[in-house]
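Appendix B, Record 12. Input sequence as logged:
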Amino acid sequence: MDATNGKANSLAFSRQSDLWYSDGNLIIVSGTRAFRVYAQFLAAKSRVFAEMRPVGVVENIPAVRLPEDEDDVESFLNYFMPPPTPTKLDTVLAVLRLSHKYDVQFLIRRALRHLNTMYPTTLGEFLAIPSPGSLHIEYPEPQLAGHLRVLRAAMEVDAQWLLPAIHYYISVAPLRSILGAQRSWAALTEETRFFVVTTHAWRLHRFEKVHEGPLQPVDENVCTDLVGCLRTQATYADEASWNHWKGPAVGCD
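Logged structural output:
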């Protein structure tokens, strides 16, 4: 499989010193950067790389060229530690995208483990998520843009178990903030954008319904302890208030 139709040795590039091994037997060119690595290691981890054929020669070394962003390729080729090692969301998503494309299964699993810590599948795990400032994954500002990017990546790799938590984070943000995250929002498919907007509208509707009770006058014909009913009603209203929430959704605006 050819990585590109062009010639790798026709490109101007700069060596990446931390990914340029003197005894490496394959050069990967991406953008203006080149990485000298071990073909046998890549072939052992990836069927796609095992079938890839050189498109040129650089310094007497077979070379391939990858079309992906050079920063993403560098993140993909660098050693990627499992959680809870601190990392950036950009790095996690780059590794997830490229390992999915080039069929590097252990990196797919590792990237998804990072995302699982932020988008768990149980309520207990969700409530245990630390505040944004203490997460091991560094998110961009605003954090909402990161959630939108994760949504796109999760759909691309069919990581459906991440979607409920992702959609929750997005749905609690103001609609103006969602639409204002222009690049991340525009990168989603039209179908996904429609789903996000309708989910947001549904949440607001249910939120209104849930809070109708505490806002209604106490029925003295039903409540035998008026003071107790009013106290319970006030406690419920306070507990149900978004201002009372101190969970992981902080920072979505």
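Residues 1-68 form one domain.
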